[in-house]
């Protein structure tokens, strides 16, 4: 914890050293994109995209899961999506999954329950191929859920919003994107 405290204290100095502007985005935000990803500590959107303050409007959930839209009970996730789409009028939303995601691993092993999720089990190496495919499928499932949010439907209809499915490989640092024409994830 102390490392984080120390780094937060000297952030203004580090920002200045890296020529990061803090004043410009202070009054309002016009993010380049919304970035939806897993809360996993190994996924760092700002590092992956070299984003600076003001660049990314983020939504992070366990597994990057986007709940189905429910008009009866709006969730924090749906409010966040609506704000980005309707108020900030972002032009792009990136849904980014990642390798070695515990949520995907647990689902693959039928341990996913509403109450909680077991950690990754032992001896998963033989399932690497399946895990990758499951991880890719998981991202597309979230993209599908996102596509059904009313505010997103509206913006997709007039082609003012573009959705992107990404998959970040923790072990290599590479990021793939889903290419519909190829029906697969290919390097960016
Ligand atoms: Zn994850």
Structure overview:
With 188 residues, the protein is α/β, with parallel strands linked by helices. The chain is 36% helix and 19% strand. The chain has 7 helices and 6 strands, in the order H-H-E-H-E-H-E-H-H-H-E-E-E. The protein has helices spanning 2-9, 11-17, 45-49, 76-87, 102-108, 128-147, 150-157, and strands spanning 33-38, 56-61, 92-98, 162-168, 175-179, 184-187. Strands 2-1-3-4-5-6 form a 6-stranded mixed β-sheet. The two termini are 35 Å apart. The model is unreliable at 111-127 (pLDDT under 50). Zinc ion (ZN) is lined by residues 38, 40, 63, 98, 101-103.
Task: Report a brief summary of the structure.
The protein has 188 residues and is an alpha/beta fold. The chain contains seven helices and six strands.
Please write out the topology:
Elements: H1 2-9, H2 11-17, E1 33-38, H3 45-49, E2 56-61, H4 76-87, E3 92-98, H5 102-108, H6 128-147, H7 150-157, E4 162-168, E5 175-179, E6 184-187
Parallel strand pairs: 1-2, 1-3, 3-4
Antiparallel strand pairs: 4-5, 5-6
The site of zinc ion (ZN) has 7 residues, from helix 5.
Keywords:
alpha/beta; Beta-carbonic Anhydrase, Chain A; six-stranded mixed beta sheet; globular
């Amino acid at each position: 914890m102390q490392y984080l405290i120390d780094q937060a204290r000297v952030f203004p100095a580090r920002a200045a050293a890296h020529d990061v502007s803090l004043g410009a985005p202070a009054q309002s935000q016009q993010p380049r994109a919304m970035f939806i990803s897993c809360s996993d500590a190994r996924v760092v959107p700002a590092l992956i995209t070299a984003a600076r303050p003001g660049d990314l409007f983020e939504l992070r959930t366990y597994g990057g899961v986007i709940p189905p839209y429910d008009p009866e009970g709006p969730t924090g996730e749906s409010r966040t999506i609506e704000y980005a789409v309707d108020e900030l009028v972002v032009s792009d939303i990136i849904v980014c999954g990642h390798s070695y995601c515990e949520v995907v691993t647990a689902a693959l092993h039928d341990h996913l329950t509403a109450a909680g999720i077991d950690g990754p089990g032992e001896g998963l190496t033989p399932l690497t191929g399946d895990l990758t495919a499951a991880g890719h499928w998981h991202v597309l499932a979230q993209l599908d859920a996102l596509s059904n949010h009313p505010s997103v439907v509206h913006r997709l209809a007039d082609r003012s919003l573009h959705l992107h499915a990404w998959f970040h490989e923790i072990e290599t640092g590479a990021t793939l994107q889903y290419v519909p024409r190829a029906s697969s994830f290919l390097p960016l």
